[in-house]
Write a structure and sequence with these properties.
Strand content: 25-35%
Helix content: 10-25%
Distance between the termini: 67 Å
Order of helices and strands: HEEEEHHHEEEEEEHEHEEEEEEEEEE
Structural class: alpha+beta
Shape: globular
Strand order of the largest sheet: 5-10-21-16-11-15-14-13-12
Largest sheet: 9 strands, mixed
Number of helices: 6
């Protein structure tokens, strides 16, 4: 006599809680997932409501002053704060089995191994799609299906502009349209709600000077010196770019050193390699992001992941549902995992910067 589908469901209900409890962390163990630095369990913020709102102060309130004795007070309340508004996005993944697969694993440990493998596949897909969208913008200004990514908050200079500065304010959407309203604030009329951007022609000494100016302008400071064991923390800041630019920077670092070890003060910007041969610029890791390879402007994004916050819906993040029989496949069991999240940036001036080739659009 065979095992009924209801028996399979009951067995799954008993099995899932006994799987390793860190199975939901599997996607954050892969170093190539830059978004994992933002969506890490220790860093995500929890919120509620119909969207995520935060107040940001773009101007001082004007209440500070030098005064004389017996001066009269002049009290006023300024409206220096603006509100950013970021929509929630919904995310799902699922894993499934056919009853024939489960029956084939009866009487051994293959049943548990099969479940584990399907869970890992599903969660890797979850992490991969977050990473992909982390390096893109929505399709247009009204798209709320995917979260705002790095190019949404760190904008390139406008077409034809070559002077670097806090002039990044035009969002380039996936369908080719553009906009200047970032998270509810129009950066075209709010200079304090813009990011630093500059252009470069090739990977050479001139680019290193661009780095130096950008580091200084955005207060993108080197990591703190660690005096005692155990005081160090994960790197918040990183430099992400295309494969071609990554390799060119590595090659430049190697050529600048007579001993062929990429460790040198290059134009005031320290470029060196760590014990594994990975190049670091001013102490920050230089990382290749495959999703940037299709960008003809060859961007170099320097980001502070501590200021790019991942916010998840309270009680609705990586929520694993009960096993159920698929409504369209009567021999298939399926488990859904759902979540609600968004990415927000609270300070565009110090969250990082972008260097890129002169854009034509």
């Amino acid at each position: 006599m065979g095992i009924s589908m209801s028996d399979h469901v009951d067995l799954l209900r008993m099995t899932l809680p006994n799987l390793p409890k860190n199975r939901f962390e599997v996607m954050w163990t892969y170093q190539q997932y830059i978004a994992s630095q933002v969506f890490n369990e220790k860093r995500i913020s929890i919120d509620g409501g119909t969207s995520v709102k935060r107040n940001v102060m773009l101007e001082p309130n004007g209440q500070a002053r030098f005064r004389m004795m017996f001066d009269t007070d002049a009290i006023s309340v300024g409206f220096a704060q603006k509100q950013i508004d970021v929509p929630w996005t919904l995310l799902e993944t699922k894993y499934a089995w056919d009853e024939c697969e489960l029956l084939a694993q009866r009487g051994g440990h293959g049943y548990i191994d099969l479940i584990k493998s399907r869970v890992v596949e599903a969660l890797e897909g979850w992490a991969t799609i977050i990473e992909e969208k982390f390096w893109s913008t929505p399709s247009n200004s009204t798209d709320t299906v995917v979260p705002y990514g790095i190019p949404y908050f760190l904008n390139k200079l406008n077409s034809g502009v070559t002077a670097g500065g806090f002039s990044g304010y035009t969002i380039r959407y996936g369908d080719g349209s553009t906009g200047t309203i970032c998270a509810g604030i129009d950066a075209s009329v709010e200079p304090k709600w813009r990011n630093y951007a500059d252009v470069y022609a090739t990977v050479d000494n001139a680019l290193l000077k661009k780095f130096r100016t950008a580091f200084r302008s955005t207060m993108f400071r080197p990591p703190s010196f660690i005096q005692n064991p155990g005081e160090d923390a994960s790197i918040d800041r990183m430099i992400c770019t295309t494969g071609a630019v990554h390799d060119s920077l590595c090659d430049l670092a190697d050529k600048r050193d007579d001993n062929h070890t990429p460790e040198d003060l290059m134009g005031g910007v320290r470029v060196r390699s760590d014990a594994l041969g990975n190049v670091r610029i001013n102490g920050y890791p230089l990382l290749w992001v495959p999703y940037l390879d299709s960008d003809t402007d060859a961007p170099i994004y320097c980001i502070d992941t501590a200021k790019m916050k991942a916010v998840v819906q309270e009680g609705y993040w990586m929520k694993e549902k009960e096993p159920m029989v698929s409504p369209f496949q009567h021999t298939v069991l399926v488990v859904y995992v759902d979540g609600k999240c968004c990415v927000l940036c609270l300070n565009r001036k110090t969250s990082g910067f972008v260097l890129h080739k002169v854009t034509s659009a």
